[in-house]
Fold this protein.
Amino acid sequence: MDFLPLAEELLAIRSTADRPQDLHRALDFVVDVVGPGFEVERFESRGKPSALVHAGGRRPFRVILNGHLDVVPGTADQFVPRREGDRLIGRGTQDMKLSALVQAQVFREVAETLPIALQLVTDEEVGGRDGTRHQLEQGVTADFVVIGEHSGLRVVTESKGIANARLCATGQAGHGAYQWLGDNALVKVTRAVDAVLAAYPVATEEVWRTTVNVARIATDNQALNQIPADATAWLDIRFPAEDRDFTGRSADEVAAHLTALCPPGVTAVVDSTEPPHRAEPDNPDVVALQAAARAQGYSGDLLRKHGAADSRFYFQRGVDAVIFGVGGNGQHGPDEYADLTTVEPYRQALRAFLGTIA
């Protein structure tokens, strides 16, 4: 089966969170690529389908290959993939449909004789709780997991934790011309944002520390001449394991920490917090995967990623999981692309690595 036509057909499926039929189409497409002769366990949680493909036998699986088939939204033209030299451009090329397709093809070639599984999910871009985490809650697990997020054939053994928080301010409405008779909640919340960013400055270069992204600030006030009585700021927080203000803390404890940074009248609420991910660098499977990458002419270096991935769900259950995928750039951007020169080396590295567990 020629790879590029399959890749282009998969990339053309607009498998975003708001299009459940296309999530099913993308999942069925890759299951069909694997072909007959394997058991296909189907899962669904809150409308998000996923599948586990395997040849039966040993549980837990020795290795799980994990790939997500959902993508972030994009314009119509981004779902018409195009080539420019060695670049395949389009939504999902780098993140991560090409890696998932290679995983499916390699699985098809070797899985009949190996205790491995292919885990296909469709909700990673919206948190992964209804795909990978849901399957884990149903008892699916493995000794080692390879997640096909892009890495340029390097091995990601560490990634940051994530906390979603809101800064909530209350005030008193009044006429905008008579400020002393009201209490502006929007001013309070912007000062709170300034205080949080003073503690966690906006990064202007790559740095391994806690970062805070201010995603949105809103108020229910609609009148230009009215003092806002409420305001909320939404924060996306990413933190490394070394930051003990977040790592190992409950949502209430993180909320108390953020509230302490804010001026009076502003309270932090943490909607969710999930720990950083880490795999042991000296795990024999990590070492074998590095060796397989090096045999293809790549460094196989260990990496740390700032973004969270489904690897965190395995880490929470004591399972080493790494990210290992094709190369490319521009994820979630208008010119996202995969580096086609990395596809075949990635395929060969996966084969070689899986050969070590035979």
Notes: The first strand starts at residue 39 and ends at 45. The chain has two domains: 3-159+276-355, 161-274. Residues 3-159+276-355 form a domain with the Aminopeptidase fold (CATH 3.40.630.10).
